[in-house]
Amino acid sequence: MSLNLIDLIKGQLGPAFTSQTAQQLGESESGISKAVGGLLPAVLGGLANNSDKPEVLDSITGAGSGDSVSNLSANVQGNSWINTLLRSIFGEQLSTLINSVATYAGISSNSAGSLLNLVTGATAGSVAKYAQDQNLDRSGISHLLNEQKGLVSGLLPAGLSLASLNLGNWAKGYGFDGNENPATTTPKAEPQVEVTRSVADGGTFPDRNTSEGGSIWKWLLPLLLLLAAGYFVWKQCEKKETTVTTTANDSTAVNRSDTVDAYTGDSANSPAEARTDENIDLNGVALMGYKGGMEDQMIAFLKTDGYKNASDDAVLKDQWYDFDHVNFKMNSSSELETGSEGQLNNLVAILKAYPDAKIKIGGYTDKTGDEATNVRISTARANFIKDWLGKNGVGAQVLGAEGYGSKFATVDASASDSERATDRKMSVRFAK
Questions:
Q1: How far apart are CA 51 and CA 49, in angstroms?
Q2: What are phi and psi of 393, to 5 degrees?
Q3: Other Cβ atoms within 10 Å of 380 Cβ, number
Q4: 398-403 and 358-364 as β-strands: parallel, antiparallel, unpaired?
């Protein structure tokens, strides 16, 4: 019987990993568990389907055995080989994989991207350690991965079908009727023979039949692919960006700074604009964010030495960058919406990559409600983000936090809530 690599990996991605990762990404444990259930077989299947690629073998042999899950959370942002490996096995479909798993698991694309890096690191590290223990050369690793093609068949959980999205060569791999979660269940090896199963009582679809003749898949498979593609497009169109919500009856009291900066509006936060997270390059490390969004703009500015060449703070004070994913819960200045911490982690990574850079946090509201209350709310939220960054090791680079209420709001208070959403935001600027 072939070795099942899922058994080697899933022990590292158990309850402790789920709890820790959920806390770090600001997601629910159930969402993280579901996402791992989709990502683990996808990554292993991707490696199996590309087991003859030199770059894939290079990544695995270079991973070593030091990338245990206990170290991954701290080190994965610095592992550029993980991003190279993912691009090698998924190519242009990488963002499709991330968004599909995010939609299926009910987590943000930003969190799904970070989780994919963790799962990939755990998978490659486990394979590398096993190969080292067994004295396998590159040919032996390739053979080991190739054997997994039959073992990962049908392991995707019910409700997630990457085959329908043309992710890799799953023609004899993932089925549409898998109902096991590899993060919690030991998969059973399936013989690599061509079989046809009858339809179960519960209405699951039969496996693909590769024999010649009048197979039901000749008409059913194209229909399923069409339906799945249509569903994916519909879900993407349905997504809208969330915005920070401010209410007039929030009574959080926080002292306000004496300094008031100007604010240059940015239409990137418009809730009507649907965007998809992509890899944003941070000196060879990929962060998940919007192209043209906060991370992309800040990194581009730093790479041009714009901050280094700025003579003083006055040159920087009018350029603000809006958070795309950071949102507070209704009536709260101390609780973030699920998925918000992913972008804050990106900001931490940027500041650590540029330790000389300093920033300031700003909070803004729309024109509705009492202005004194709006100032208190926006100030409390700006200070919350400042304190959060301090707890994550970059506090010395945050020079201040300010709440401006509706001072720089541009949309009339009588406008619709969706129109006023552009004025409700949290932002960051560079400072000297």
A1: 6
A2: 90, 5
A3: 22
A4: parallel
Cβ 35 vs Cβ 112: under 8 Å: yes
Strands (E), 4-57: none
169-197 in b/e form (b: 16+ CB < 10 A) is ebeebbbbbbebbbbeeebeeeeeeeeee
Digit-coded pLDDT (tens) for 225-251: 777 777 666 655 554 443 333 333 333
Tokens of 419: 């129109």
Among 319, 340, 310, CA closest to 328? 340
Token look-up 């541009």 returns: 410
Q: pLDDT band at residue 261, thresholds of 50, 70 and 90? A: very low
pLDDT in tens, 348-374: 999 999 999 999 999 999 999 899 999
Task: Tokens 């009910």: give the residue.
Answer: 106
Q: Are 328 and 341 within 8 A, CB to CB?
A: no
User: What does each C-alpha distance from 219 to 145, 159, 224 come to in angstroms?
Assistant: 32, 21, 9
Helix (H) or strand (E) holding 8: helix 5-10
Going by C-alpha positions, the residue among 323, 351, 350, 357 that lies closest to residue 337 is: 323
Angle, helices 109-133 vs 94-105, to 10°: value is 110
* Structural element, H or E, at residue 277: strand 277-282
N residues, the chain: 432
Query: Nearest 5°: phi and psi at 280?
Result: -105, 125
Only one residue has tokens 């944003």, namely: 280
Q: How far apart are CA 33 and CA 21, in angstroms?
A: 10
In sequence order, the β-bridge partners of residue 328 are 336
What are 280's strand-pairing partners?
287
Q: What is the C-alpha separation between 221 and 28, in angstroms, rounded? A: 34
Location of structure tokens 């919350």: 384
